[in-house]
Amino acid sequence: MILTLKLILSPMIIGVIALAGRRWGSAVSGWLLGFPLTSAPISLILAMQHGTGFAATSAAGNLGGQAAVCVFCLVYGMAALQFNWQISAAISVTAFFMAVAALNQFSLDLATAFIILLSVVVLTFCLLPKSGGKKNVALLPVWDLPLRMLLAAIFVFCLTGLSETLGPQLSGLIAPFPVFGLITSIFTHCQNGSAATLSLFRSYITASAGYACFFLIVGGGLTTLGIVPTYLLATLAIFILNGLILFILRKYSGQFPLNTSTQQTKTNR
After folding, report:
1. Residue 5 pLDDT
2. What distance in Å separates the CA atoms of residue 72 and residue 18, rounded to the nearest whole number?
3. Which of 75, 76, 116, 264 has its CA 20 to 30 A from that of 186?
4. What are the helix (H) ranges across 104-143?
5. Do residues 34 and 208 lie in contact, with contact meaning Cβ atoms separated by under 8 Å?
6. Predicted pLDDT of residue 112
């Protein structure tokens, strides 16, 4: 079951995100990335392998790790205005691990980690450039989607193998590593330019509010409610909250238009 989660579910998720981006634009891809696509399965695996107490403790780390993901988004978004994807990716991944290292110096409790994440969400959303850079429309090669799916499987397999040996807090901090976010942002940057990349990160950061709610429930409920009720409740909560956020921002700020023309769906053989 665990091997299935690593090698089959992850490529399916990145495939769905890629297809959603082609159909509705990078903002919707970013919104989907804000869901705990890797950290929720990892949290479930940890609960089954190491017990609910271990996974509940890891939840605080998950919240801190998502704050580091928001830092990743901000740094990549700012770098994308000046640099190519290689430099932008290197700088932003370094920033993620620096943030993780800083947070790991403290013993994070659930409430503190929750407040830190929400504060970082607001701060990074405000600091992220609202516009700028180039907007491209690229022909997508036939190997584009399979390559994304293969990279996702490799990343998740390696990451989960490492995280289970690091203890609950550091496992939680590393679990949100933006596997899908890094892959999607690189392809978006290459194929659609920095303007689309900023749109991706803007919605990615916003959806982190639902992520915070998910792991607040996991951390607070696992040891009392058990595995199945806790993850079902957390899943319901994140869909309701992120759905509400998407509705409000589309209706009142125009932040997330369902753009069907930003991606070129033809393939280049």
Report:
1. 59
2. 20
3. 116
4. 110-127
5. yes
6. 93
CA-to-CA separations, 170 to 54, 99, 177, in angstroms, rounded: 12, 12, 12
The DSSP annotation for 69-109 comes to HHHHHHHHHHHHTTS-HHHHHHHHHHHHHHHHHHHTTS---
Q: What are phi and psi of 209, to 5 degrees?
A: -65, -40
d(CA 76, CA 183): 12
DSSP code for 8: I
What amino acid occupies position 102?
A
Q: What is the DSSP letter of 35?
A: S
Nearest of 110, 25, 5, 16 to residue 61 by alpha carbon: 110
Residues present in the chain in total: 269
Q: Which two tokens stand for residue 4?
A: 């299935």
Q: In degrees rounded to 5, what are phi and psi of residue 267?
A: -105, 150
DSSP state of 253: T
Q: What range defines the domain where residue 147 resides?
A: 2-253
pTM for this predicted structure = 0.79
Q: Which helix (H) or strand (E) holds 58?
A: helix 52-80
**Is residue 9 exposed (0-12), middle (13-18) or buried (19+ Cβ within 10 Å)?**
middle
Does residue 6 sit within a domain?
yes
189 part of a folded domain: yes
CA distance 128 to 146: 31
Count: domains in the chain: 1
Which residues lie closer than 8 Å to 196 by C-beta, 6 or more apart? 25, 26, 135, 136, 188, 189, 262
Q: Does some domain include residue 141?
A: yes
- Cα separation of 176 and 66, whole Å? 6
Distance CA 258, CA 199 (A): 12
107-135 pLDDT, tens digit per residue, is 889 999 999 999 999 999 999 987 665 55
